[in-house]
Every structure is written in structure tokens, then in C-alpha cells.
Amino acid sequence: xxxxxxxxxILKVVVEDYIETAEPVxxxxxxxxxxxxxxxxxxxxxxxxxxxxxxxxxxxTSAGRxxxxxxxxxxxxxxxxxxxxxxxxxxxxxxxxxIKMAELDDVISQAGQMMSLLVQxxxxxxxxxxxxxxxxxxxxxxxxxxxxxxxxxxSGSRVKSKLLKSDLPITAExxxxxxxxxxxxxxxxxxxxxxxxxxxxxxxxxxxxxxxLSAVVSYATEILEEAGKQEIITAGTNRLLKLPEYRDxxxxxxxxxxxxxxxxxxxxxxxAPVEILIGPENVDQALKDSSVVVASYxxxxxxxxxxxxxxxxxxxxxxxxxxxxYFAEGLTKMFGKNELPAKKETKDE
Amino acid sequence: xxxxxxxxxILKVVVEDYIETAEPVxxxxxxxxxxxxxxxxxxxxxxxxxxxxxxxxxxxTSAGRxxxxxxxxxxxxxxxxxxxxxxxxxxxxxxxxxIKMAELDDVISQAGQMMSLLVQxxxxxxxxxxxxxxxxxxxxxxxxxxxxxxxxxxSGSRVKSKLLKSDLPITAExxxxxxxxxxxxxxxxxxxxxxxxxxxxxxxxxxxxxxxLSAVVSYATEILEEAGKQEIITAGTNRLLKLPEYRDxxxxxxxxxxxxxxxxxxxxxxxAPVEILIGPENVDQALKDSSVVVASYxxxxxxxxxxxxxxxxxxxxxxxxxxxxYFAEGLTKMFGKNELPAKKETKDE
DNA sequence: TTTAGCACTCATTTCTCTCGAGTGCTAAAC
DNA sequence: GTTTAGCACTCGAGAGAAATGAGTGCTAAA
Lengths: 349, 349
Hints:
2 copies of one chain form a homodimer.
Chain A: H1 5-21, H2 27-33, H3 40-53, E1 56-57, E2 66-67, H4 69-79, H5 87-97, H6 104-119, E3 123-128, E4 135-144, E5 147-154, E6 158-165, H7 174-185, H8 191-201, H9 207-228, E7 231-235, H10 249-261, E8 274-278, E9 290-299, E10 303-312, H11 317-336
Helix pairs in contact in A: 1-4, 2-3, 5-11, 8-9
Chain A binds a DNA duplex through helix 3.
């Protein structure tokens, strides 16, 4: 059964008022905010209907009404006006996105902090491939007889490197052979496969090389496993404490621990640009009284990242969703064209 | 003026009891815990003295006593028994330290989390050079005509790498020259100097190379600046909320924001293995009611790291300090001999 | 110097009371 | 049939007031 347009309007006022004040909304306040003059008594009748239909709730008999998850859902789906970002805000976001990218992880963490600052709620960010990271290429650089630099390029255009030290002396001459070995036998495969390949080669490689080789492969395995593992970064968790619904320390602690545990955080449904999960729509117990707005973005061609905002159910869905989708869009663009800055013009005078 | 040994014993009981319970300690409780039977009345006389001398405080007339910062200080300096770690605990720490080290930052962050788990207080970790990081060596690897991998080795044996993409085509032939240029003119100097060197070369390098060169140098500058910046990682800040002294949400929020801001966190005095800062001994306002135990460790030859624990003034100094110093020691050892694992024996059957 | 005894203090807990925002219902007005 | 005004009613929040009890300070005796 469809709601009358007046009921919808009332629902909208209730949601928006409650978002702002975190206090139950009374009939009088609603009457004042409705266009067209309707008395508070009429509103009360409508409110009673809305409660009956499950869109609103009453904390106790003589309190105002607050939206139920069902009410929020309707609001999000139909009533919410696309929140347009002001020029100033847009610029702020753009600025944040142009932060010099040092490394992927850092950028992502930066972005999370920025977002948290912007919406005043905690955020979480996840970056990672689809679990099928493979080794693309390996290079070895000679440093001195006890150390070499290993450079690995993994799928998704990420590069990792490390200084390996060895007890056994290494000669510069060994490296080309080793490097060739690596690129011939170990590229294009995932972490699980690396170990097997190493075994296969154990007979056919000179022992002094094999030692080095296995060290390098072990490092590669580590890198791939880590890249495959979806790492989650959180930012601004302490903002929760500023919100009235988390003045209850135990509640705040439960949620913060959950965020810190970095497990089971909601991920957006495939395809949807921004997803909104309200209260009980969340799977995890710790989130049952909170809401999550989450968006995904693309990193390169075959990786996806994800950024989410966690807050009370009364969070300002319109504005958070707008910011988030704009932000995610920006991140996608940013990771898409990651090119050499050609800003400095070369002049020969 | 020296305290009588009985006064000291009383002080010790008060401190330890208060650490455990977070409640003011009454004369009766003390009497029960003192060896040799002394009546609570006698204790009260002694307590009055201790208050007068500034070692204890009374929240209000008819409450028990709690230690003042001065009292804690005496406890830490003289009364505290070196807390011996149990075998189980030692093993736990050892285990944590053997976590596979993926990258410096990760290890450090891991260590912080582990420590936080161990002492049940928030921790912060800092790693970084002495601000005088220099570029040691640069290598370039050809990927395809639009991208190259830049590998930089900075002082302290750290390696960083990145994939650079370019609009202009790059040929494999250009790289050796570029690499030679980099290693000849840009090694051994710090971030600030890099820009100047680039300027000096602007005339003498072919323009198409110069474009690439400046991109690489700009990346190098970034890396060095970041390495120089002392980055601070925190862990377990939410544990604060479990402690009675931070049930007051505003207090908790102040401290947590301070930790999140990652500024002005105490650093240990040079030389001392572990430093304990009690309440007002801390410089920053947000820490005036809390205490910090901080230790430093060595990373390689010319870098120092730092790990600190933040908690209420009644924190269990003995145990925290013991764990921390053991941990820091372990970290130093661990970073010291970072060698190739020679575990796998090579057999040719 | 130590101890027992007792009056006193004061934070905490419990309860009672009041206040008022907001409701539900009824009956009249539109 | 819908809207409105009016009024009794509910119930949480907040303010005191009173009871509680842990712990003290002081005095006088051991």
C-alpha cells in the first residue's frame, strides 16, 4: 500500500529533523515545518498511522517519533534529495585527491582520513585485488657481496622492493642467471603456486643459487599473499564519541572494537555506485544500531577499492552519500590516469 | 627528608592497590595488606603524614587516599619491584617479534598492536631516521614504452620503488644514461638538495631525458621527505574506553584525539632504556592526567624507533615497563641482524 | 608510640515529587 | 469524511531530600 503524499512529507520532515537533532520529533515541531498549515492534531493522526505501518517508532508513549529502519529506507529510496555539493566542498575534495600519491596504501589511508574529516564520521577503506594476484616480473640489483635488492612487480602495476641480506657472499655475476630463472619460471602465477615451482627446480639449479632463489621466492610469496589479503584501514573512529548515541561508553566501545578488528565490514553490492545499509540491514551484531554508507572505486584495471562511512542510523544519508560517491568517483579517475607529471616545461635557454 | 621504611611500605601498598582497583584506598584495607599487624588507626596517622608530604592525595575529606604524581614517582624510582616476565609471556613476545617482516612500517605497526594487546593500553610507535635521510642509489627498470620502475635505496638500507607512467614514449636505451646521471649527481644528498641539483643540470641534459629525470627526482624528493618525517602509528586506542578513568566520554575523546593527531607524543630521553612520565610530568595538556611509558630501539645503524604506552596514572608501571623494555630490546636485535633466512637446506639427492 | 572508640564528613544511592512535552481520544467544525 | 480544538493522561527527565556507609580526625587510654 502506497503512502499518501502528505504522509511522505511528514516522514521526510521527521527523518530530517531527527538527523539534525537526535531527539524524538513531536507533532508541533512537524506542523511548524510543514508547508501549508495543518494543525498538530492532524499530524498526530497521521503519525499514528505511520507508526502502525512501521515507518516510525515511539521510544515511549509520550515521546515524539523517530524513524524506524523501514522509515529510513523509504527516505533513502524515495524522499531523499540528491544532495548537491557546494563549490567549496567540491574543491576541498578535489584538493584531497590531488595529494601527491606516495604509495597506494598511503593514498588510501589519506583519503580515508580526509573523508572522515569531511563527514565527521569514522570511515574504513579497503584496497586489494580479487585475491588472484600474480607475479609479473622480478628484478635483482646488486648492492654489495652481502646484499641485493629485490624488485617485484605484481599484477595491478604495483611494485614492491626490499633489501635482502645474506650470510653467503653473492657475486654480481650470479644475478642475471637468477633473474632469468625467476622471470622464466615464476611469473604469471599466484602465491600458492610459487612454492611448487621452487620444488620443481630444486634439482636443476646449483645449490648456491638455489639458496638465494628460495629467499627471493619466499619474499615474493609474502608480497603476493599480503596483496591478496584485503587490508582494511580505518580513520576517525574517535569521532563516534562526539555523537549523542555513543555517549554510552559500552556501545561506543563495542563499535570501535568492531571497526578496529577490521573484519566483516560491509562491502557494496556489485554494480551499485553507493550502497546504504540501515541498522538491522547490517549483518554484524555490532552494527545493528548503526548505519553504513559504502562506495567502491577502481584501482587500475583489475583491482577494486572500497570506502565506507559508519555512523548512527540518523546519519545524514543524503549528504554522506553525495560526498562519498563524488569521492569514489574521484579516486577512480585518479588511479586511472596515473601518469608522469609533465608540468615542468623544459626550456633550454 | 627521608621517608621511614614503614611509610614507604604503606605508600607501596596504596599505589599497588590503587593500580588494581582504581578506587581510593582506605586505612583498613591497607592494614589488612601490611605484614606485621598494625591497626588502621596507626595507618591513618601515617597516611595523614604522607598527604602532608605530598605523596598521597585525598579526593575529598572522607575518601581513601590515592597516590599523587609525586607518590607515583617515588614508587617508580624506589619501591617498584622489577617485574619478571613469566615464561609464557616471554614466549608470546618472542613470537610476536618473529612475525615475518614484510616491510618496516608493517612490522612496526604489528609490534604496536601486539604491545597494546599485551598491556591492554593504547600504544604509539614511531620510526624514522634522524631527519637526514639521503639517497644512496637509484635504479631504473624498463617495463614498456610508457612505463618504467624506479627503485630507490635510501640511507638506512630501506628500499622504495614505484611504477612511473609517461605520456611520452620511453626507450630502453635511454635508461642506462639516465640511471648513470642519477647515481652520479643525486646520490649522497638529502631531499632539499635534490631540487638544486636538478636545476644545475637543466642545461646539460637533452630535453627528452630531462623530463623523465625530473619526474624521477621529484619522486625521490617525496620519498626522502617522507622518510625524514617521523611517522607515528597508534594502536589500541579504543582500549581506553574500558578503563574507569575514561568513562567520562569527554576525557576519553580528548585523549584519543590527541593520540590520533600524532603530534607531540613524548619521546624518551637519550640514553635511558625506558622512560616513565607521570601525569603532570607530561608536556601536553591532554596527557596531564595520564601517564606514558616509552622505550626506544635501534633500527639498523643510524635509525631509532620508539614505542610508547599511554594509560591512566595508576597504570601498572612495573609490568608495563618490563614488557616494554623487553620488547624494545627484541626489536633492536631483530632489526640488527636482518639476514637471509638459511633455513631451507639445499640437498641434491 | 600504638590502639580503640566515637563523632563527623561527604560522595553515592535511592526515593519521591514535580514538571512539561507529547500523546490519544472525543466532540465539534468544516 | 476530514480537520481541528480541547483536555485528560502518560511517562521520562531533573531536582531535591533522605538514607547509607566508607573513611576520616581526634581524643584518651594502654
